[in-house]
Fold each of these.
Amino acid sequence: MNILITGSAGFIGFHLAKNLLKKKQNNVFGIDNFNNYYSKKIKKKRNSILLKEKNFFFYKINLSKRKRIENIFKKNKFDIIFHLAGQPGVLYSFKNPKSYKINNLLATKHLCEVAAKNKVKKFIFGSSSSVYGDQKKFPISENSKKKPINYYAKTKYQCEKIVKKNFSSKEFSYQIFRFFTVYGSFGRPDMFIHKLLNSIKKNKLISLHNHGKNYRDFTYIDDVVNVLVKSVNKNFQNDILNICKSKPIKNNKLIKIISNLYGKKAKLNLIGKVKGEMLVTHGCNRLLKKNMKHKKFTSIEKGLKQTIKDFKKYNM
Ligand SMILES: NC(=O)c1ccc[n+]([C@@H]2O[C@H](COP(=O)([O-])OP(=O)(O)OC[C@H]3O[C@@H](n4cnc5c(N)ncnc54)[C@H](O)[C@@H]3O)[C@@H](O)[C@H]2O)c1
């Protein structure tokens, strides 16, 4: 099977590619432009691990350039696409909205149109829990009202619509997954867990938003990858599914667990609420469990233990 993964040098794309490459009948094609939103060193390290496999093929291209995508589709025929490339980050969307327009909206539009024109049957898109915004009722189910409160979330919701528009007809199928705060080895340095690990390592102060009272539905990367891999052989009914553990943790509690496992305390700078940030993310995973038969989620202790072990081993 020929599988295309966009954002293959990114956190989730890398772990997904690594898993799919284990099956030697799979050819995995990765696309990434190694953008500099966070350290290119990590992206290059992830890519170098993937390039060790004979069945991995990599294209360094920018998905906002339509011609470059068309050239790749001329050379290869893909059975399925995982679209995980994009501009993530909630707070950065206030600083650099243009990057979200280009790397989320434009990139997704180009990829979807070229893929549909080339009759790729299955399209899987990595969306975000942020499309729900601040909710009052928990856990948040897939049909809860969407109230995106920052530009990142708005573009992700718009991308979902682009995917639906291109892959809703009978000859195609799509699957949209809304990820909830994914963490694990080689995690993103702009996200809380790796930010905290880096600050502990360097004895630096870390700002703790909302005095550590935000809740996040931390979901371990292996659980996410497990679901994504299962979706390769599944017949979709054009679904939207949350991927979440559905057990949110207060950041203050998370810091205690991490400090204990690391063996060193974090230096915290307590600050108030931050504009555009959700106070609680707590997804419902009932549909996910039913449709994808993923019943057991990794405990936060086990997931963090592995994350910290690899953080110390690889120094990233
Ligand atoms: N990690 C999470 O907790 C989380 C939560 C919700 C949603 N998501 C979504 O899942 C997807 C993957 O997230 P991630 O954590 O792996 O992010 P990531 O930033 O680590 O990976 C994204 C990759 O896409 C690449 N990229 C960006 N724009 C590109 C372009 N125009 N052309 C080619 N490559 C481009 C980047 O270089 C990067 O390597 C993203 O779309 C993100 O919005 C992630």
Amino acid sequence: MNAFIPPFCPWKGCSEHHLSSSKHPYQAYLPWGSYPTKAFGRVPRFRCTSCGRTFSVQSFSLDYYAKRVVDYQDVSRRLSSCESLRAIGRNLGLSCDSVSNRISRASRQAIAAESRLAASRHPDEDLAADGFESFCVSQFFPNNIHLLVGQGSQFVYASNHVTLRRKGRMTKTQKRRRAELDERFRPTPRGLERGFSRIATEALRLLSDSSRASLQLWTDEKLEYRRALEGRPVFASLEAAGRFRHRRVSSRAARTRANPLYPVNYFDRELRKDLHEHVRETVCFGRNVNHQSERLVLYLFGHNYGKPFRIAGERRSHAEVAGYDTGAIGAELKRIWTRRSFLSLEELPEDQRDIWLRLRRTPLKEGKQYLPKYAAA
Ligand SMILES: [Zn+2]
């Protein structure tokens, strides 16, 4: 603990906060005593001589403000092995709120690590995208989780969550109930198209990062997908130049490995069996859209960087198969569960930023969702 050297000032308004690698190492601080804690022993403090504010070793720890040491990797593995939050709590001797708090912290770490790793990617594959159907709060609030998956690697490049209005066959009582709920919550109009437009943005971003001159995006025949793509001015010119091609296949086509949507179909199956809230007829369904999104982020991170591509055969992770640098992945995995990531130091896609800041709307919940101050730093 004593040998700890602060890498930068943790206060985001300070000139010593954004220290790029080219800038001088952080030296504008003084030791400023220490304080005792039950969980972490004596914690050294420092004072920044540039902004005059104090901080401690804990300011750089993922356990900032936490009162108990919990194994984040263990929580993440349990979550992704179909354990419910209550079961994780029981097994680790934690309350449900503590489990949820650790998952939120871990998900922000995963978002930051993913964005840093994406900065040096050079994908060399076509893409498939589709919506995974689930719900949050109640079956009256179905949602669509769009997924953008690498055709060869089954790496999930992006996801997006939209709440939809319940449709389909309903009894008279259910219709009355839906009418009551309509008064209290209305999903964003054209949600499917708007949600997919973010997936389209990510697909186009992948083209610019790609080592190929052109790529294909496979989807089913939903009109919303086409409209979302056509809504982006750059799409038409890329398509005309033969650099980006939108290809469609019927959603009724056999779900075999020969189906171009196989990567998303495969991932749907994994998600359905591994995350308890998405299991059919579960009683452990999500109650909050932001927390549901955080859990998905953590699951995706485990799928992309932790799981081997195939149980028998190819043992590299999905990320390695997608061409992500093995050394860079190793470096991120070494720090992910210890060194806290700061939002102010990350460049995140819009969707990931929304999840980090808990900006998504949960049906029937009024007002903004609480986010601890330290998480927004
Ligand atoms: Zn400072």
Amino acid sequence: MQASTAKSAVIAGLAFTLLSSCAPKYVYKFDPNVFPQPVDTRSRPIQYQEKRQYISSLGIVFDNQFDGARLNQWQEDDSTSFSIGIEPENTPINHSPWYSFRIISPIDTGIFVRLHYPEGFRHRYVPKLRYNRGRWVAIDSSQYHLNEDTTAAFLHLHLRAGDTLWVSAQELLTTNHIRAWLDSLKGHPWVQSVEVIGHSTLGRPLWFVNIGTPDDTHKDVIVVIARQHPPEVPGHMAMMAFVEALLDTTRRNANFFKHHQVWLYPLMNPDGVDLGHWRHNAGGIDLNRDWAYFRQPETRQVAQHVIHRAKKHKANIILGLDFHSTQYDVYYTFPDSVDRKLRYFDRYWIEGIAETLPPHPWVREAYDLNAPISKAWFLLQFHAESITFEIGDETPRDLVKMKGKAAAREMIKLLIMRCGKRK
Ligand SMILES: [Zn+2]
């Protein structure tokens, strides 16, 4: 379909299908829901890594003594070759082996590092490097190769005397980084509050940000959550860009916030992030399977907060967005046949985002209720449209930011059109 035809089809379709769904519906229950694939989310033990320094015969120091680090075993094979073993927090676990460590050398030298994993796991993330406080960059392909069955990665690293080299599966974006980012949002006219609404298993803050106008009574609300899964940094970056675009003080955005509010939970799994986990929280559980029984404090407190706030403010939750990362850019949606608020929003929104960006590969995968994930909960609890927004692990970071911003702008365009005639 040509772009102009597609656009007019979008406008006509939306005006017809979405205007009727502006009226709030207040049906809130806090019942566990039944899913075709139930998951036992009772806590299970995790293995903590030993936090320490390893010093080579030439005085090269490796360490994991920072938030987000993961380095479980270290061995000097010869004076410039090292093996580093990476292990998960517990098993079974998703295939997302996170690693992160730093190296300080007293001399200029090149070294070889072999990353290896327990049996059954393969290397996944292209290493990101950062010297001192410089920019993160993906390792040059000439410095990096995998063995034939991809169970190990070989890195050739250049060390400079006195410099710190950070080596990480993805850029570090930990609790402290998010705290600083939230501090930077405070004082914006549309940021009504940045609050700690609860604590993780190990006592880290669970934040909530109320974005919109001071009075959010009777508004249509978009709930945004992010970082249930620690290694999924590109999705987290997209969420940050999304929020920053919401806060552009344009007339259109001001118009949007007359009828809409955005409730943001920017860091769902702070323990997992800071402990350098592959997937789980400190209870050893995949939080994005706990949206039926809420046995983990992170999911339970966020869900309760959304529900209580929605009741108190007579808010109409119309859309849930959950930011993640996987091997490629993908939107997980519901099929058109699933009845819900904003039905067909996903199609128009996703096409709108694609039209504003340079051509890049992405897919939309629609599937019905299966596991107890956040997407299912938004639908069952609020009858809301609900989309899991996944960014590819290695999607170029400038595109990730553009995409996050485009996602906010296209959402605003569509929702304003829907409620343009509201008083
Ligand atoms: Zn995920």
